[in-house]
Amino acid sequence: MFRASTVVILDQRFQKKDKTYAVKLRVTYNREQKYYLLGKDLDIDQWSLLQERNPKDKEIKRLKLLFAEIEKKAIKIIDDMEIFSFQEFEKKFNQKPKSSTDVMDALHTKMETLKAEGRLNSAESYKSTYKSFTSFLTSLNRKKLKYADITPEYLEEYEAWMKANGSSITTIGIYLRNLRTIFNQAIEEGIFQHEFYPFGKRKYQIPAGQNIKKALRIDDIKKIVDYKPETQAEAKAKDLWLFSYLCNGVNVKDIVRLQYRNLSKKHITFIRAKTERSTKSNQKEIVIVRMPEIDEIINKWGIKPEQPNKYIFDLISENDTPVQELAKIKQATKTINKYMKRIGEKLELDLKLTTYTARHSFATTVNYYFNQQIIS
Questions:
Q1: d(CA 360, CA 244)
Q2: Which of 77, 142, 168, 209 is the most interior residue, by most CB within 10 Å?
Q3: Residue 363 above 80 pLDDT?
Q4: Chain-wide mean pLDDT for the chain?
């Protein structure tokens, strides 16, 4: 018996006015072919980029993942059919998923969507939220969690359970804000009525942890600047830590992703990774003055030759997948923290030296730095 086959194609039989073609799913069965629109149009160059194993362009990468998921869905439909027919396939392929009233399903779907979009940090956050509520349900001898089950009293009980299990207020706040996002989406989709919304004034209010700034004193910064590293690993960690501090407290992810095209003669300019998915009006552009100390670090550790699309510090590669990039960023942060902790202990500083400390020390000491010029 013949088995139906699938492939995502660019249908070049019909060119549109803007020189693009429709992307379609082609299903072949017993020498008969049918095409199904996927709602996307691409030109020849975009389609060529899509065929690359690891596309660099983020939108192309997103589309590659999307088309792979669509074909995966089509293959599953075919595999589940005892006898294939185009009519039955079309019915199931075009069927809109039923809106689920189960909160756990919604959390899992959100996690998978973020993962497919390459937003791996956010996906990990929702994964942790999912696991937390799964454990809470188990403690209540339950498996399902409906929107209607979640009342202010239920959330109070969850918060108390989390505290009893040693979770911090910060962690509790993160998980409940993720849950609140799921509720907001359910209301937008008409799954849940706003009048029963459990969050807000006179209902349940998400706890906010006290944000204690871990800032160093200016004399502590001076000690770090004057410290003579004992190894190359220490030297690189110290320089990247200072780079973060001098560059307005920029985080490691943005340091790692800096390219030579972000440099001009007097400035470093880039969009924060945290806001790059926002609309253009909401994107936060960071402009940093290139002080001699910053240039010294770039000249010391920057890869050569300098090319616009090359990463400055060679901590990630343009061929990395989102998963590989995230792993390397985490490793870079871990390595910096490891050696800076050692440096801090040698200098007998009160605060533990981490990349977090560098970010928050900037705001309290940068004005003094410009006035006193402690780095020479």
A1: 10
A2: 77
A3: no
A4: 87
Residue 233: which domain range?
A: 218-372
Q: Would you tell me how many other CB atoms lie within 10 Å of the CB of residue 317?
A: 12
| pLDDT for residue 374 | 45
Res. 302 pLDDT band, cuts 50 70 90 = very high
What pLDDT sits at residue 373? 47
Residues 6 or more apart whose CB falls under 8 angstroms from that of 343 comprise 224, 227, 229, 234, 237, 238, 353
Total domains present in the chain? 3
Q: How far apart are CA 188 and CA 109, in angstroms?
A: 16
pLDDT recorded at residue 209: 65
Same domain? 121 vs 77: no
Are the beta carbons of 302 and 313 closer than 8 angstroms?
yes
Task: Say which CATH number the domain at 153 has.
Answer: 1.10.150
Q: Where are the alpha helices (DSSP H) in the chain?
A: 44-50, 58-80, 86-93, 103-116, 120-139, 152-164, 169-188, 218-226, 232-246, 252-256, 292-301, 322-346, 355-372
Asked if the structure places residue 207 within a domain, the reply is no
Domain end position, chosen among 68, 93, 118: 93
Selected residue with higher pLDDT from 374 and 20:
20
For residue 363, give both structure tokens. Answer: 């705001």
pLDDT band of residue 143 (cuts 50, 70, 90) is: confident
DSSP of 62-77, one letter per residue? HHHHHHHHHHHHHHHH
Q: How far apart are the first and last CA of the chain?
A: 79
User: How many angstroms separate the CA atoms of 5 and 200, rounded?
Assistant: 51
Same domain, 270 and 302: yes
Higher pLDDT, 333 or 115: 333
Amino acid (one-letter) located at 85: S
